[in-house]
DNA sequence: TTCGATTGTTATGGCGCCCTAAGAACCGGT
DNA sequence: ACCGGTTCTTAGGGCGCCATAACAATCGAA
């Protein structure tokens, strides 16, 4: 029961996150995984076959893969490490949101369970990372509150920011600049026509313009 | 100018440390390196040839290797990371000496320069790690004070512990138990005959018995 | 329903780093 | 000067993970 290699961990994480973020149920395809990891579909195909052999996924030929319990468990462990590291590096070492993500992407594969546990303790077992994403427990529980995207709220609606997608550093900075961080209160004022920006009042205070692509990355509750 | 692979870093570190700890001048042999890294001499031979090609060492066939400036620089960077991590994990996360060493052995290859710099800053740019080993600067300066081993002191001599070798977890705990940590004052009382233990008064207080092998791991000034 | 485009798979090879086996160079003793 | 033992190097193979190329299955449009 050795720890899976970094490559295997990356694949499992990708499969898990693709399953999370896709509206549609069912298997994750080879090409989705390949794109997420920036490898060829041939490489992904080989690796998914291997993950099946290792018992982490069920691979149905020409359909895709679905995580087994063991695979989900392994994926959540990596995600737990990632988010604990992000939180620690941001709050205890004052690193910026974008630095933190890159750093955690590497270190998540190399911190021991003991260190992860110490970090969690030191942070008081937080439930969310700085972007608002839930931190799985050691047992593999994840709180994932139902959420809506800011882009889908009607004019006049108010809500609280739950989390923001952290795939793009520039977008992250853009949102942070405008106060769109977890726990911010937002009120949708109006949608400009023809795919224009959305006017949003943030924290009962300033009004900012949020382009649709950015609004899609903000999840509210 | 990519970062060398973890394997390359491990070899460079080993060559550097073998050069440090050996009394004799001159090249480091293939088998010394092989033993230090627990690989076969064949593997070491191949890798040393490769390090030569990369410009990190000069390899003279059947003689051994010596670090180039570039190799020494790379080795010191790894050692810097290792010792900063040890210091950080011990003082800020309360991990024990032995846990800390294993953890740093892995993480030293994966922390970014930015993170290493943040850690150094957070710690106030310490000059030594918890075992008393000097922490190289970014530029590659190392303070290495002349030192003698506790095992070599004559009866009646007094000195201050500078550093202790950290290769063996059990030994480390043994020494820590007896107060033989950096900055402890020691007075040699007597050597038992036939390779018996050395009686040492620690911090003008308790008297402990130190077997010769343990005494060799304690460096005093 | 047939054919081209799309998507997935298999085959094969490269690269890094390890191994074992075998051979070459060097050492000390006689 | 030779011979046996030690040390080092070379040769060849394995494993993990990536790639490219070629082939197979599937989908959808006419």
Primary descriptors:
two-stranded antiparallel ribbon; alpha+beta; 221 residues; homodimer; six-stranded antiparallel beta sheet
Description:
The structure is a homodimer of 221-residue chains. Chain A is of the alpha+beta class. Helix content of chain A is 43%, strand content 16%. Chain A contains eight helices and eight strands; from the N terminus they run αααββαααββαβββαβ. Chain A has helices at 6-21, 30-37, 41-53, 69-92, 97-107, 113-122, 169-177, 212-215; strands at 57-60, 64-67, 148-149, 158-164, 185-191, 198-202, 207-210, 218-220. In chain A, the strands form two sheets. A six-stranded antiparallel β-sheet of chain A has the order 3-8-4-5-6-7. In chain A, β5 (185-191) and β6 (198-202) form a beta hairpin. In chain A, α1 crosses α2 (30-37) and α1 crosses α4 (69-92). Chain A is globular. The interface between A and B is medium-sized, with 19 and 19 residues. The first copy, chain A, binds a DNA duplex (30 and 30 nucleotides) through residues 5, 7, 29-31, 39-47, 49-50, 61-62.
Helix content range of chain A: 40-55%
Radius of gyration of chain A: 19 Å
Number of helices of chain A: 8
H and E order of chain A: HHHEEHHHEEHEEEHE
Largest sheet of chain A: 6 strands, antiparallel
Poorly predicted sequence stretches spanning 5 or more consecutive residues of chain A:
none
Average pLDDT of chain A, to the nearest integer? 94
Shape of chain A: globular
Largest interface: A-B, 19 and 19 residues
Please state how the strands of the largest beta sheet of chain A are arranged side by side. 3-8-4-5-6-7
Oligomer: homodimer
